[in-house]
């Protein structure tokens, strides 16, 4: 599936790629609307519709991922609400073995995530994922999400890499398109980012169903 002699660097999304997206899906689609309705004394269905409209309006921007932004906009402590369901944070299958194989092969591994720094800290506390990679780069530190083409230019300045010898794995089509426009040669799309949802069908990028499919390093 991949000629590893052509790869020096592996960049990995976090949520939906290394970690099960179910935590985030459950939080934003179920837990937050329920708790927001309770805290604001709203009808649950009204809270769901209102939150969905406001959140979708920020899709593709850094605000979409920013806990500080949503805490201020909604008047609730988003991080505290995330902690209420932090037991749902967990790895996707075969992640640890894959990352250990990359390390043994001497391939540099980077997590490149749009996740807010406070949420990254929460997830690392639950999983110790950061100990399995060489570096964790958070888009908030660059002031723009991975969806923006200039993100990759800025990333290359702080983390030099050769796009022609880089593998990037993500579950987001807009992010993968952005990386493709920048010139990253090897791109894979996670087929089932949320363990509680069916695998997605897309033909734009090669789909990765199981990390073991890549383990001939």
What does this structure look like?
With 217 residues, this protein is α/β, with parallel strands linked by helices. It is 42% helix and 12% strand. The chain has helices spanning 22-40, 44-56, 62-65, 67-74, 78-83, 95-104, 117-127, 149-158, 173-182, and strands spanning 9-12, 108-113, 135-138, 166-170, 186-190, 207-208. Strands 3-2-1-4-5-6 form a six-stranded parallel sheet, with helices on both faces. β4 (166-170), α9 (173-182) and β5 form a beta-alpha-beta unit. The longest helix is centred in the first third of the chain and has 19 residues, at 22-40. The model has no long low-confidence stretch (mean pLDDT 96). Pfam families: Hydrolase.
Task: Give descriptors for this structure.
217 residues, alpha/beta, six-stranded parallel sheet, 9 helices, 12% strand
Main sheet attributes: strand count, strand direction, barrel closure:
6 strands, parallel
Radius of gyration computed on alpha carbons: 18 Å
Order of helices and strands: EHHHHHHEHEHEHEE
Strand arrangement across the biggest beta sheet:
3-2-1-4-5-6
Helix content: 40-55%
**Straight-line N-to-C gap:** 11 Å
Work out the helix count. 9
Overall 3D form: globular
Low-confidence stretches: none
- The fraction of residues assigned to DSSP E strands is 5-15%
Secondary structural class: alpha/beta
Number of strands: 6
Roughly what is the average pLDDT, rounded to an integer?
A: 96
């Amino acid at each position: 599936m991949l000629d590893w002699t052509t790869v020096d660097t592996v960049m990995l999304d976090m949520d939906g790629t290394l970690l099960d997206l179910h935590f985030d899906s459950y939080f934003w689609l179920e837990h937050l609307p329920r708790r927001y309705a309770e805290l604001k004394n709203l009808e649950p269905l009204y809270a769901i519709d209102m939150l969905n409209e406001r959140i979708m309006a920020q899709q593709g921007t850094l605000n979409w991922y920013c806990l500080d932004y949503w805490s201020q906009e909604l008047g609730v402590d988003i991080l505290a609400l995330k902690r209420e369901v932090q037991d749902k944070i967990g790895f996707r299958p075969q992640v640890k073995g894959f990352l250990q194989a990359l390390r043994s092969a001497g391939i540099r591994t980077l997590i490149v995530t749009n996740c807010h720094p406070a949420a990254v800290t929460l997830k690392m506390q639950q999983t110790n994922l950061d100990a399995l990679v060489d570096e964790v780069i958070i888009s908030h530190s660059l002031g723009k999400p991975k969806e923006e083409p200039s993100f990759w230019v800025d990333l290359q300045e702080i983390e030099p890499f050769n796009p022609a010898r880089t593998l990037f794995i993500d579950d987001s089509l807009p992010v993968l398109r952005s990386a493709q426009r920048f010139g990253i040669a090897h791109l894979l799309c996670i087929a089932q980012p949320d363990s509680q949802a069916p695998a997605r069908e897309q033909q734009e990028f090669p789909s990765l169903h199981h990390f073991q499919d890549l383990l001939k390093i």
